[in-house]
From TrEMBL:
Lineage: Bacteria, Bacillati, Bacillota, Bacilli, Bacillales
Domain of life: Bacteria
PANTHER family reported in the protein's UniProt record: TRNA (ADENINE(22)-N(1))-METHYLTRANSFERASE
Pfam family, one: TrmK
Protein name per Swiss-Prot or TrEMBL: tRNA (Adenine(22)-N(1))-methyltransferase TrmK
Record-linked InterPro entries: SAM-dependent_MTases_sf, TrmK
Amino acid sequence: KLSKRLQTIADRVTPGSRTADIGSDHALLPVYLVQSGRVPSAIAGELNTGPYQAACKAAASAGLTAVIAVRQGDGLCVLHPGEADTVTIAGMGGSLMADILEAGRLSGKLEGVRELVLQPNVGEEFVRRWLVRHGWTLTDETVLEEDGRFYEVLHAVLMPSEESDNAGLYDPSFLNKPASQTELWTNWLYRMGPHLLRQPTLTLHKKWEHEIGKLERILAQMAGSDTPDARAKEAEFRMEIAQIQEVLACTP
Ligand code: SAM
């Protein structure tokens, strides 16, 4: 049985899509997708030798070596253009994820890919910004809690530009803030998720309460240090907390 996190990712993959899972580790996701009949075939890409060998072993012991290709390499370089309809990347930082997507785009490896299912562990904003910059439309976002940790799963597709409305998606006017503050609240939409904020769930609130708790613990540790640097950091964290609370208070 998959973890709730991996199951949420698997459920976002369009049935029938040839899927490449990048940074696949033990290939749990591709093995599940093929075994369950959701996808006909998959590619498991891994940079590091240990996880690559684990993925090879997993595909072999599931008897799926004919339909799961396990390949070692950096990011999307393991793909041939046109080979995958869907790319999944999970369990790494959003900044690294955006770098992998960008390198893949520049080398043509994303050609033919129509769907991305991405689960950044941190730095979700880097992924959202990359998607917007390259014409991908964020169609769905989910936040889930598992074993005391929070995970976001982002689903994006390529659609004709007349059907896509990225500008509208990141327009913070639904938060009812003054127009002079548009840039500030747009930045918070990138950080917190434009769909998540339009339909906030209890889990979203819990995630950000948890983030506030982390910031408050750092502030508590900083109390007593009186350098200009510490003061500036303290003010920055306090503002961050206030802004998170303000966004959550404005959500529908
Ligand atoms: N995707 C799995 C999941 O979500 O459970 C595994 C996540 S694991 C924490 C991250 C994996 O990404 C590691 O196995 C690591 O070796 C791999 N990785 C890191 N950088 C990579 C890159 N540039 N290209 C391919 N794999 C990478």
